[in-house]
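Q: What does the assembly look like in three dimensions?
Context provided by user:
Components: two
Sequences:
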Amino acid sequence: MAGVYGLLPLGLKVYRKIENIVREGMNSIDGQEIMMNVLQPRELWDETGRFSEISEIMYQFKDKNGKDIGLAPTHEEQVTDIIRHHIKSYKDLPTSLYQIQVKFRNEPRAKSGLLRGREFMMKDMYSFHVDEKDFENHYKKVGEKYLDIFSKIGLKTKYVAADGGIFSKYSHEFQVICPTGEDTIYYCDKCDFAENKEIAKVKNDDKCPKCDGKIIEAKSIEVGNIFPLKNKFSSAMGAKYVDNNGSEKDLIMGCYGIGLTRALAAIVEVYFDQENNMMIWPESVAPFDVEIISLEKNKEAEELYEKIKDKIEILYDDRDISAGEKFAEADLIGAPKRVIVSEKSLKSGGAELIDLKSGESQIVEIEEIASVL
RNA sequence: CGGGGAGUGGCGCAGUUGGUAGCGCGCGUCGUUUGGGACGAUGAGGCCGCAGGUUCGAGUCCUGUCUCCCCGACCA
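A: Here is the predicted structure of the complete assembly.
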């Protein structure tokens, strides 16, 4: 069906790497990983009125006993339910819970493959605080960590001010500048000023309101966003804590999302070289570190593979097909380094080692390859 | 939801006025090939999206329906 995709072996390998980088990032700012359920009872969502409010986007149906069920498009209600049973005192705060899980959203129009699907993977984190001030410190910390995570997976992102939607006055998005993106942002060519078109007061070529730079308009892909939720959910659902004066107060909340499968697609959008029909993955998420291509079968390639296969991730192509086909497919798979073992390379003294990003190529003795890599 | 386009071997497509369903790639077998998607020979593979209708006869005409893609609207 439209907007629904699975991942084959190469895609899954890349996905897992993205997932792990995100997971480490969340753990490093004291996020605790949990896993919530996808099947949701109507009653929970009626507490905030959202079962009706977002029925357009939430897949909803009746089970065989006539009970209303929904597939979670997001988890504020569920996480608030969990937290109201476990947090009682200011001494339990702050705390952040996150999960990496599938989301279902009945998008009015799925498009551009993994960039906008109806079933996709997301990391969503929710934080809980005693007051706005504590929340804001955390919000800032998560924002900085997000920039760091995106940079680790090879995406340069802009930290963009955006509309707060139904939750609040503001939010922030992490946008990758890319012509295939569906968002439009305005950013300064000198400082970190950036606004989403939905709220922007500037236009292309304006002077930056923060410095003497120039405003540039660009299409972009939103790979993450962070929202203040204030007490919207805690107040509706009775998620309170007792402060140090003994009185009950609403929890102050924030939520923080990263579209994992969308990030995977964004990396391809940015790194795929259309002209040469070639992918070069960032090393941190590449499905393989190295592809070894053996032209004519030779024992040197086989021995090299056996020697290093447990130390680095290698794709070894010893298929009985033409050289051109191996090269063309290796270009599409996009391992950042390539080792070619052939009669020609052996005559020149070893194997040819190519760094795809720089295009640099060198002949390295077979015995040396392992240490060079 | 509004507008546009498309459903025919695994993939990409052609199919004229209604008359034996084709091509390229891929796949099997044999042989020759190996530094940029090789070549020859020979095979296998189709309910023409689905349901009705018109006709002696429908991939083709008519009606209905489902699905996918693109552009909008939408994006909690």
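Follow-up: Residues 1-2, 50, 53-54, 56-58, 73-74, 105, 107-109, 111, 116, 165-167, 182, 293, 295-296, 320-329, 331, 340, 342-345, 352 of chain A lie near RNA strand B (CB under 10 Å from a C1').
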